[in-house]
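TL;DR need structure tokens for one chain.
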Amino acid sequence: MSEYIREMVVKQVKDNHLVVWFDPKRIYGDISADLQIPGGTVARYRDSFFELRHDIAPLMTREEPPDLLIYVPLSEEETENALVAYISAGIVLKPLQTPWQRNTRLAVIANQALKDLVDDAAELEEIAKKVDRNELTLSDLDALAERARKSSYQKILALIYRVETPQDITLSFLNRPETDEELTRKNALDDLKTFLHTEYGAEIREDTPETCRGELARYVLMSALLANLDNYVPEMLSRVPHARSTKDQQACAQLVYEWQMRRDLQKSYATWARKIEQALGIGEYRLELSQIEDIHTFQGIDQAVLSLVEQALLTQSTDDLEEIARKREQGFWAEMVPTTKARWRLVATIAAFLNLGQAIETTMKGRNFTAGEIAAHYTDKDQPWCQLDTLYRYVEKYYATTEYESASPPKTVKNLYTKVRQRYMELGGEIASRFVQQLAQSRFDLPDYPRQTEIISGYVAPAMEQGKVAYILVDAFRYEMAQELLQVLPENSVATLDAARATVPTITEVGMAALMVKTDVQPALISIGGGKLAIEVGGKVLKDRSSRLDYLKEHIDSEVLSLKLSDLLHLSKSVTDDIRNADLILVTSQEIDEFAEKAEPYQARRYMDDIFHTLQRAFRVLTEYGVSTIIVTADHGYLFGEEIDDPMKIPSPGGETADLHRRVWVGRGGAANEAYCYFKASDLGLGGNLEIATPYGLGVFKVAGGGLAYFHGGLSPQEYIIPVLTIQSSPQEQQLSTGIQLTIELGGDSITTRVCMVKIEGKATKLVDLQPPKIRVEIWSEGNLISQPFGALYGHEQATGDVQLRMSQKDPQSIDPNTVTLLIPPEIRPGKSASIHLLDATTGVLLKKLENIPIHITF
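>> reply
TL;DR here they are.
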């Protein structure tokens, strides 16, 4: 509309030279303010006719009549003939003026301007009436005209691409070259160019759909990039076509975002982005981190951000750097390139480790914490210092498993890894040293933390009064690992995590024995020769698994069943019958210690991660057979860090040595040394006359053989503070934290063949941030896992059998339905009924369960 009025006025000036424009309602003030007459002049009345005539006078002395527009925001009558000379010399524009070409009544102009855009005469008439009733303004008419103008060519493009919105039309053109033939046949390429100019400001000059597509992709991606750079344009890119207005830049940026988010178009976007990046040399530009930290347009930008974050972390870690890394880990290029995602995950974990280290150091600075206060910080619920151990464990894992472009990690990654290792040894050593010193000064008094020998009486016995109990003893299961396990239990689980004190020396034969003892007796630490120690209780020597189990069964007035953790993963019928009949199921595991002390470090770290999944499977089995309370604890913790060099190795105390490990000496008559804490076993409440020495920090004694990175036996919080995790078991289902509620359905009323098909569907329970989960389907019968994954309609991972679900393209609030196929191997003889479990593959959480399914398989 406004453009139509401008063209009308300019034509009248060109045709008649002198035009006086009266605007009594001041409708056209904004138009007159910026109106330009090519080769002419616009004069405006500003409360003084004298000044107006004075400004115009020089133009009226010329021989040729001037091209002059005089705009007066009054009616002609209000001027009292002040402009009569100019009116007589030219023509007048005003409401109701004749002929109609000079009539500036807004309804008349609307009728003329919209008649080619609005096909319905009745609709056009209604618009004119609303204008006369002052229900529509000039800006309203501008919007109506723009909408009507768009609809004409947008209808043609919508017909070709079978979509309606401008964004969908554009994405269809960029990603569906198979429609080019129809676009050409309908002679709609010019319509497309007009459409793209209107929506995005793009001036497309190519003359074939294919070349136009490349020109548009470059324009859109460059505009999105520069929009995110706050209009900073690198000199080398200044002549590359891009959007100039803020509106067009934002439209391009939104289009790129939608393009990246559409799962069906992501590969296409990545292909175009790489092609354009290579052509323009985007990866060669050097920009500041603050300029590009939120830009995801090109892979080269993502790599530049990665490099800048890594370099910055080498200097000083900040919360902002960690946040950048976490966001980029979930970004477009991380999703498209698994190696990039893995590296961002490593960098984010390193940043979190360094930030927590700084926070711990700040808390410790200038403070003389007691041992109890250090233990409280170490086990704190909000920001526990033990999280430093967790993060370090993950740094080691990710560094070893991340794939790099070259055979070895980049220099920055190597340097960051070295920094993390050094930082862990320095800060961990400082915490351990202070803790041991304060613990010794307090005469080993930690009243808020029960002794290991109090767990039977304080936790197991009360739970047995309420029902069947599983008592799981995991060798070397650190407090921080139990805290992580607690976080991945179902949200509706009733679980508590307490901290307790291991028995020193923190070695397996001592800790496992202490976990069998009640508080009404005093255990003694004794030497049994051959460099071995044991616990003696009431004349009974607990020196190995057999003697410990015999002692427990003698002192528990109930049916006790002892199993190894592996027994719960491969159940036999005799074991299931025993579990049903037992009151206390004692489950032991020594795999962490065995792997860490004998295998390569990377193998040990891998098993430490596997233990979470293994324990969750064990929990499900125990729950299946009526266990009401599960108590998980450990004999001791451990240190697992950088390999110890000779300068950190300490000479042992000497004297009469009963046992010597890298982290502990036990004997009599040893020499004291400022490098280690020397005390009597009786100081810890143990009987016997043995003496103990353990390094203050993370140092070790000089011992022949043994591992160089994995240790235990000492008094550091990592070794000494053990978990007591109590779970009130319940097989209840849990809604996914991803905001999706899943359902499962068996393809029949019963299982009649060894090939079973399970249909999975899901609906959103919230509107935003939907994350389709990775799931696992299992069939259980009589406490045994009887199925093996075979395949799925989509998303099946051959290596793991897990299935990655996806959102439906037709209904964004639903999971794309999937059918998972399971096999029951021929060697399996299931019972008479089964249950189907839908699990979160990442956490092992039970999401859905079908029970009491009859099995009618002919063998």
